[in-house]
Structures
1.
Amino acid sequence: MANKIKKGDTVQVLAGKDKGSTGKVIAVNRETQRVTVEGVNRVTRHTKAGESGRGSRTGGLVVQESPIHVSNVAIVDPSDKKPTRIKTRVETVERDGRQKATRIRVGARSGKDL
């Protein structure tokens, strides 16, 4: 199954403790079908104390984003700021005398390019 959400997309959370919140996709893991969204699903990690190369102390409590499943997010349509599904449109582009097919992501709600 092709993952239609890419890094840099603005998405809205559909399920879970952060339902309704929006954020930008930081990372996408295709093997586990999970995405990390900025400011969503923040968890507290306990990191071991140590020293950095400059001698400053590191460690303690670190709050960071945790990945969520791709089925729990939907891309936000830029025209009306509401979540939408994604369709693909195939266009033929002529380059160097040859025709090449390119896929363009389109919002199902408005029909505009994403």
2.
Amino acid sequence: MKILAIEASSEQGSVALLVDGAILSRRIDGAANHSESVLRDIAALLSEAGLTVGQLDAVAFGAGPGAFTGLRLACGVAQGLALGAGLGIATVGSLDALALQASAPRVFVATDARMGEVYHAAYVRDEDGTPRLVSGPRCDVPEDIELLEGHWTAVGSAFAVWPDALRHRLAMFIDDCRDNLVARADEVAVLGARMAVSSRLLPPEQAAPLYVRDKVALTTAERLARGGRA
């Protein structure tokens, strides 16, 4: 299985190439660098592996939720490559990729959504290691988030941004907290390969980012109400 993956839902983007179980990847730091680097890094990965886009089995992208611009970039690049090569697309949840990276039986993922809110979802690991969604994905203010019963491995940037509202308030349910992890193209590629095997690829024209919040910016009144500047 040969899968090219793109993940740009956060400040730390990445591209990865999964070739028969082995992964080649490159990191892209800074959201402003995503658009400049992604095609160049994809070309470098394909060259390193001695492959062309037409030799791939599918293209996968991290569909979010996450940064609007990054999601549109990842989706657009995936669509362009897949259309040109006649490939299907694996639309992989970025929170799913984070849950897989955590490699724990029960994972609660929460990432900073800006505007005082958090994207979150809960997963239980299946026998084959795939994270199975049991709650979410949702977008809520951190004080409103509650965990399902049991103990969880907490993952994602929201636990660093909102330590009191999340990490400390929910401490009785959290066995381990990994607030430095971000979604990576490595896991997007792995999950994309599983989707390809199970015939869950989409035609390029049907691929789209996952939006769990339509609003991408606060109004001036809302910023002032939350203590921000006009």
3.
Amino acid sequence: MLYKRCSGCGKRIPSNIVCECQVNNARKRYKEYYKNRRSDREQQAFYRSKEWLRCRQLRVTTLLGIDWYEYYVNNKLVQGYTLHHIEELKECEERALDTSNLIYLTQANHIKIHKEYAKSFKDKKRMQNILFKCLEKAKDEFGIG
């Protein structure tokens, strides 16, 4: 039988088994994550609502499933993964279902954009303007949006 060392506790365990300490660590991380997400129950409920699911499907179809940010900034045509609120839901709830506030992004771009949002208010506004301009260009050039 082949053995390996657990990267967490250093115990010797069979190679086809996950160490108990790693299972417990995963449980702890999930409990912390869940505890922090509980404060966002309203947002969680919104993202499970029929209205959002319908709006999301319509917007993704309208945008042809393309990440327009990637297309205009990096000149690459790629499929999106996440529908992003340009003006964030927690700051602007009245635009939650406004399709002009939604852009489809790859996961990498979504993370990149949220990092820009977190830097400063000025960086956030600059990024929001870029995203709105990407949607405007797509509308002008391709009649999308």
4.
Amino acid sequence: MSFNLALLDAKEKNKIELDKQASFIVWKMKQAKAGPEAISSQLKTIRSEEEREWFQSSVDKYKRVMGVL
């Protein structure tokens, strides 16, 4: 089954983008190319509390999946 992401509303597109950013930051941490400060730095750029919570939950999810402490 395929989905056309272009048809999603702006809020859903942003959630996907935040999830991708969280995945990338955790991957960089696993590769020792970034530290935990990368997460806090990214959190400071997010204005909405709801989006910050979404980003943090995505970070937590990818930390579990990738085995990053």
